[in-house]
Amino acid sequence: MPHVIVKLQSGRSEQKKANIAAEITKVIMAGADCAEQSVSVRIEDVAPGDWVEKVYKPDIIGGPGTLYKKPGYNPL
Q: Is 64 annotated as catalytic?
């Protein structure tokens, strides 16, 4: 039962977030070999000024063992 959490800088429309969730669902279904009803997707808006403290430090720097795709930027 895959559950995906996506953190995005705020500013995207609800339609854009719904499209992102639908595309993620398709990819997870194929990659994890599971049914659509098994997948859930949560999207969290993060203010640009909060990105470093709420996302970059705890999730990217603080999660190297579970980070499978590193970003190509370093805001520090």
A: no
